[in-house]
TrEMBL record:
It comes from Herbiconiux ginsengi. This is Regulatory protein, luxR family. CDD domains: LuxR_C_like. Residues 461-526 form the HTH luxR-type domain. One of its GO terms (molecular function) is DNA binding. One of its GO terms (biological process) is regulation of DNA-templated transcription. The keyword Transcription applies.
Amino acid sequence: MSDPSERSAISQELQDAVSRADWDAVQTIVERNWSALIIADPAVIRDAVAALPDAVVAANPRWISAQNYLSYLPVGDAPRPLRFRDTAPPGLSSALIDVLVELTSRAAAARVAGRLDRAVRWVDEARDALGDATDEAVVEMQYSLPDLHSQWGKVREAAGQSTEAFREYQDAHDLAAVTGNELIYQSSAGSLAWLHTIAGQTAEAEAWLDRVPRGDPPAEAPDWTSKRYGITAHLSRALGHIDRLEYDEAREVLDVYADVAKAPDYWAIILYLRARLARHTGDAWRVLTQIDSAVQSRPPELTANGISAHFVAVARAELYIELEQPARARQALGGQRSTPPSTYYLQLEQAKIDMLTGDLQAVTRIVEPLLTVATSAQRVIAEALVLHSVTQLRGGWEREAGEAFQQALALIESARLYSALTVIRRGDFDALVALVPAGALAGAAGPALDRVRERGSFLPEMDSTVPLSPRERSVLAELVSGASVAEIANRLFVSQNTVKSQLRSVYRKLGVANRAEAEQAVGRLGLLD
């Protein structure tokens, strides 16, 4: 229902039904046109639901959840809760629609609170209830199903269940097409585009984006529905720009559409994309501050679990890599628990940190398994191949390095994932390009490499000559020999506090976090030779 006049007519029809106190008509109009009314005039639908008599609400408790949701929407200047909360008493009705709305509302409340295991259980229960329902009951509530599947998809996506989320968004999209639910038709297409984009499946993502209005910045500020329900399409386009090294275009999309207040479900992804741009914009510290502020203002469970925690961890690691602080980058990734495919991206980030510090053996231990298990994620394979090429090159295996790099180029060019070529240093990139036969550069690979040379923001070139003072070198030498802090203090005739202070300085300069990493850095950089 894309015609504004048609939406306006439905809005007027709803107001007339409220004026007549025809509560059966009010319920039918709202249920069949929920999304259209939210787009056309959210205040009207909010007032209509609030006007339902207590007896009607008691008999149809789904309207309690509807009131909670409508009060949560960022519309107008009226006070609203910062997080969606479900306040409906359980088990007031056995009707299928009421059962599904109750379970979905509880799942949504648990999701925004970070209690993802509980949220997934409620979605599973709702799915089972729908599967057990009769065909007649399903047909009767068909206009509500697109919104329910969309909410189930959000829960599964937040929990890292990308395959299951894809199924929910696909169901939401198909049912929205049948029932004329324009809002869910477009928002679910955007969500499907985002899932494909983050996996590096560019062609599939663009096919879904074709079903969503273009994300070009409008002449006037976009309304809240575009920022809230269209956010996944905007995020998909922004990441696509980053992949093509179109940094200014990506930043423009984020500046116009990516409002954390209007799209609270995707706060971590928005900050992750900001972090991806920091190597180009040079504002790593500012984005780190934004991340810390966002984390502190949200429930600990929300920031420590699920896909949001993963995006925050990778964003912080990216920023610390840009600031040449590998120890802090490692700490940012520490303690993350995940399952594929989320774990692949965490492992790639760890490999980039190891590449930054020159630990090629650690890079190899990560990327070689990824090349065999992450075949469905083109982004992972592309970046792993590029990193693998560098380990082969530095190990003296030039032929193998050239072959791996050409495989990476073919994949990167087909999906336009040019950013995958920037996960290494510029010097390594140039050395690998030199291994590519001239004939192989005659096609599309040549222009692609030119684009990367011109626009790419590469992995920083950390200086391998660490400026340690004579006393710091002495402390480091004792540490590597196996001495304790007390033993080092006795041997150098200083206090233990002095030794601890000097060790903190050494760790900071080496970009390490403990004795074991310091010992590895000494061997890798030849500091005490």
